Amino acid sequence: MIAFRSILFNTAFYANLILRMIVLSPIYFLLPRKRAYFIPKNWAKANHWLMKTIVGTTFTVEGLENIPKGGYILAPKHQSFWDTYALLPWLDDPVYILKRELTWIPIFGWYIAKQRMIPVNRGAKGKVMAQVIERTKMEMATGRQLIIYPEGTRRPPGAPPEYKYGIARLYRDLNVPVVPVAMHPGLFWPRRKFLRFPGHFTVRILPPIEPGMDPDAFHDKLMHDLEQASDELLVQTARDNPELPLPPTAIQRLKELGAARDV
Q: Which GO terms describe its biological process (predicted)?
């Protein structure tokens, strides 16, 4: 049944994406940029409905009161394709730093360009990174919210943290709050797998880290706060979803936390 529901959901998910891009493109590209954002945001809401209705996966968002007004950096854990779009309905005018290859995809890349997302060559450093920061400053100066994943790429739930230092540099140079977000969607929508699992999980938006800290101290605090919340949510999610199959990384981390499931 899980395999059948997964196939049905994946089919509906991509059909929803492709049909919306084709049918709504005239409206999207004619509207002013920020007003046009309602189309991606409604797409995200539709995906949440599909996940709930077809797979049986639901989630709760905690800590919305921690989201500041104006510009800030949102720093979520990154485990799944789910978390690339999931929070769009709660954000005013987000902007992503993303790999440039995404801009080469027909139609999808045009949608990205419309919202002035910031493409980057992951293999480039030095001068290119400085240009990315300058471009990011321009977007943030208009009050936008930057979404960046501190570990840079998707990591399996419970895996040892691998935080990149780039977010500390952005924190220093942009001089805005950083809002950490802990969650475990990778338990229900695993990376590089087609299966989708039913259950319930929590998205926890933590209090913002205000600007002005030493970058090294900020980096340590971000990792401490986010990993502590992630551990708490991993234990909670495993407890609340006893039938959910867990990846080896999550099983190992639960053992280290003294919260291993009974076999």
A: phosphatidic acid biosynthetic process
